[in-house]
Amino acid sequence: MLKRKRWIFAILAILPTLAVFAYVRLYPIADTLRLSLFKWDILSKNKPFVGLANFRELMGDHLFIDALVNTTIIAFGVLILTIPMALIIAALIFHRTRSRMAGFYETAIFIPHVVSLVPAAMAWKWIFDARLGPLNALLTFFGIPAQSWLFDPVLSVICIIVLCSWQALGYAVLIYIVGFKNLPVSLYEAAKLDGASGPQSFWHLSIPMLKPITLYVSVVTLVSGFNVYAQAFVLASDAQGAPGRQVRVLVLDMLENSFRNYRVGYAASEAVVLLVIVLALTLIQFSMLRERGKA
């Protein structure tokens, strides 16, 4: 009887939180799924059910395809650049700076993550500026031709990847440092007695034991990469200064279809595609970690 009362109390205690979560998270997802099946035009009273017509139209929309390709490249570029750098920097901070300076380094590396996106993008836009930017000044100093970083389609994507990685790096480093602090010291001492060097211990002990941390950081980094918007909107501009025209990303395409073209149902179908992609990639990452754990 006492056990049953505890269960009832626990369920009643978490019900308000579950209700808020369902309203804030689950309801918008369900409503987006519903809208994607309608031709939902803000300016029209008639909003007919069209089934999967919006999704079929997406497959032939070159703007959506371009946005999907650019977003995928940016997301995986940020993932590939951030994870190894974060792991190495976290190892250096943890093993080399076990002193008062460790807190300073952790704070310094985390600052870009909490800086507002728009001011950060404006600062990097100045760095990448073709005429006045310090990056081109540095290149010309070494005899390398200046580049039009923000006006070339390929270089613009690279610039966005660099900016997103710079912002994501601090969070990943701190998570890895927490992981390092929870690793058993006895294993490293045993490896050292067996003649293992620092790099060998890092490769054969640290990396395998940090797989759960790597999974979490990878999922968070990949999801944030697929949701990139402000960086592309501010950083990548065309010659006339219109933001976001040089590099088209999924979130920007959704916003334009919703609030400029008033095609809410069509934009909802894009959001559903983005949800499916992120969910599929997350499940793949979990399955890869499970298979490696069994091996």
From TrEMBL:
| Membrane topology, record value | Multi-pass membrane protein
The UniProt keyword set, sorted, is: Cell membrane, Membrane, Transmembrane, Transmembrane helix, Transport
Q: Tell me the superkingdom of the source.
A: Bacteria
Compartments in which it is found = Cell membrane
Q: Which GO terms describe its biological process?
A: transmembrane transport
Q: State the family named in the UniProt similarity comment for this chain.
A: Belongs to the binding-protein-dependent transport system permease family.
Designated name of the protein: Putative fructose-amino acid permease
Q: Which organism is it from?
A: Neorhizobium galegae bv. orientalis str. HAMBI 540
